[in-house]
Batch of 4 targets.
Target 1
Amino acid sequence: MSVQPAGAEPRERANGLNREEGPPLHAQIRDILHRQILERPLLPGSPLPTEEELQKQFGVSRSVVRQALSGLSDLGLIRRQRGRGSVVAAAPVLRRHLQRAGGLDEQAAAHGQRLRTHVIAVEHAAPPESAVEALNTTNTWKIERIRYLEEVPVAFMRTWVPRDLFPHFTKELLENASLLGLMREHGYHPAGGPRQVQAVAADADLAHKLHTSTREPLLLLQGVTRDALGHGLEWFNVWHSPNTVFDVDAQVTSQPTSISQEGVRRLRSLAQQLESELAALGHSTG
């Protein structure tokens, strides 16, 4: 029986892999490289180690390495180039207009992008107090969704909607569908509402959902959407990954122009002249 030297790692964990328990080796290697990309040791455009180098580093076959790289490619994290190895891909950037309520799919399409939606849960749950005030009900659905851009998660949404208005909502119905589009189909037309944006740190759950690091800064968009009559249709929190750009069309408020006394006299004179001409026109046509 061999004795493990003091302070040495167990053999199955010596290169970061657990060969006795846990996920398949290719999944473990994929996750190790994934963490390195998220934590920034591997920056966009930088080359990954070659397949041969990864084989030696992890002590696995080439087929295992290729499975790991394929998994990273499917997530949109690397670009595989024939004869040139793999490089870290630049994260796709989601752009959205802060003034525009909803329409995230349309906004992405305007930039030649396509979003995919995965519904995590649709359940009957009471909303937060601020949502009760906005929706005027405690009988709500809580809907949790992740939006993907090029297979990269870019937004996690937690939304409450009134069950009395939308009793038919199910997980299957909402999968890869527009929530506001479904509302329109059932006779309720979203018009907009107040929103606010703030920077927050990712907790462990958000970091897992958005494939980012714990305490990574995220942009939280919170608000309510109402119809033209003021009825609350949804109250939502949307956490955006760091690769989101909010476009804002800022306008400079023009200062009112002061009018001189001379200008006032001229305007009054023009008004009197106009009244006189209208009166004359009325007499001539009478």
Target 2
Amino acid sequence: MNMTMSSVPDSRCGRVEVITSVQCRRRWTTAEKVRLVEEAMQPGLSVSYVARRAGISPSQLLSWKRRMLEGGATAVQADDDVVGVARVQELEKRVRDLECLLGRKTMEAEILKEALALAAPKKPVLRLASLDRDGSP
């Protein structure tokens, strides 16, 4: 059972919630994370205050902020777009799969070359009749 009770408004936060049941882990969308990080970066607002209002740990918000800043710095340094780790891992797996396929196809081509070489008819060799020492047959 999820029961939320509000107490006397706190001057810093506005209200205090007491949750008496076990909660499932909340999933934050990218847009929500960006909004919270941008809010925490506003002058006069602290990470702790924004995190408390959102109901998350300040360390979680700091982690999101660090990732955003590092990703942006990396993109600027490389003069490139930021790509998520999941996308990079997906592309690396695709490259491994394609390399494996290329290896198989290369091996098949080598086997086919060997098979053709074995199956190809031998070119006839012209044998000259032996000549006597004086040059007559």
Target 3
Amino acid sequence: MIDAHVHVWRIGANGCTWPTAELTAIHRDFDLDDYRAIARGIDGVILVQSQENAIDTDWLLDLAAQDAFVAGVVGWCDLHASNAAERITELSARPKLRGLRPMVQDRAADWYDDPALDAAFAVMTTAGLVLEALVRPQHLPALARLAQRHPDLRIVVDHAGKPDLGALGAWSEALRTLAAFPKTWCKLSGLLNEVVAGQEDARIAEIVAAVQAAFGPDRILWGSDWPVLHLAASHAEWLAKARDLVPVVQHRAVFRETAAFVYGLAA
């Protein structure tokens, strides 16, 4: 089983400025040994950046080079920087870099429409890197337009696009529009942090059903979003819930094969 969304950090080191102190449940160092202590049945992880800092990405890649448990890294790069193409090329030479994640969730809805980004997206496509999309529902239309402009760029939507529980219809429609582009995938991760306590089962089931209807059985992958997950549940609780919601016949794809395909890993 591959956990396609795991974070590690050291508070105050490697460019780490988040989580802040008020998030007491996760305001401490988390490393791969901490993850191994709580995860069961996982034989590989994708480490995903948590800081908008090149030092964080370099540190994750150094960890990955030393630990076979890390199957790949999704790092960060300032795609607006004048040297973005050079930095992407440099990072792509690191064997376990699999993608890049600009942190768009709090940026303008049309962020992906900026033509100044197209050169970076082109270099990512040539390098075979995944664009990891940390977005909210308002960003999905621009992400679809990006998929149209760069049809060979692989795009993975994190946390199912952080659906707005008050507007699931609009989110679902935008997700279906994006899913019409064949090189887009959706990650079942971070969902428990998006729902109201006490409504988890019904709302998560509704969200997962919409993702399944949009992307089908072969373009969905699972991630824990550990340790951010601790704000809502344990790793075991989220894994069990996800396994219940995904039909058994799809387990191998959702919990291993799709991640292996998208990130170019050995299945």
Target 4
Amino acid sequence: MPEAVATPARKSWIDKLKAGLRKTGASIATVFTGTQIDDALYEDLEAALLMADTGVKATEHLLQDLKRRVKDSKTTDPAAVKGLLVESLTSLLTPLQKPLLIGRFKPTVIMVAGVNGAGKTTSIGKLTRHLATSNASVLLAAADTFRAAAREQLGVWADRTAVDIISQDGGDPAAVAFDAVSAGKARGRDVVLVDTAGRLPTQLHLMEELKKIKRVVQKTGPCNDNANLSSSTEASSLPPHEVLLVIDGNTGQNALTQVKAFDDALGLTGLIVTKLDGTAKGGVLAAIARERPIPVYFIGVGEKLEDLETFNAREFSQALLS
């Protein structure tokens, strides 16, 4: 498959991604410095992949696929095996590569969840900027009413990205979300982004609060379907149209546990993977691809507004194993 020519901005991003994944990639790359392809190489690779939090299922899949590729290509050079692993990993991750589509529904309502410390509110700010660069008008909903600092933080992002925000002191998170979606419809906004309180999936009462937000948002009624597809039903136009989970790339297998728990509770449509800079656990995306293949819309490798980019399976694989 021919590689797309990267723009200077994208090339700069890929360089950041390589730097961010260096800890993960270095431990895997040392496996291919030997002189022969033998059982020891595969055993070392298995250990390196598991240490990178690729997970047992994804590791087994990658090893089997890699051995097949080595056999089919009659490769004898261990260094060349790394290139085949890039192909194998790209193939595994490709189902996660899917763009976030805005525009069919007006407004497109996006609900964002995540545990405390995953970078959820910051990611919403970055996502707002990303949408604004596509000329989409955004309204923010500060439905994390449990934490005053969260409203303030979201307010800062709203100011920096010059968008409106719906918030209230204390109050019911679901009511804030309902008001924001109603306002988004009335004001003709393209997107309504709903921030929610950070929580652990083991905090069942808080997970129930998330489910309540989703149910109450649906009560605002169908959004305008710009596509006017004959096959569309009223249910498909009910908000939220996207339910995103923000996960910290440094948490490895714990991130996979979060994906499963939040997906079971809310029916996730996409992921944002943050804090991939300096992680030794970058293999977790392979684990997600194998065990709960929910699209990864964006990945992040820094704190700046522009440090959130669309996920590309080949770029990620090459950066990881560069």
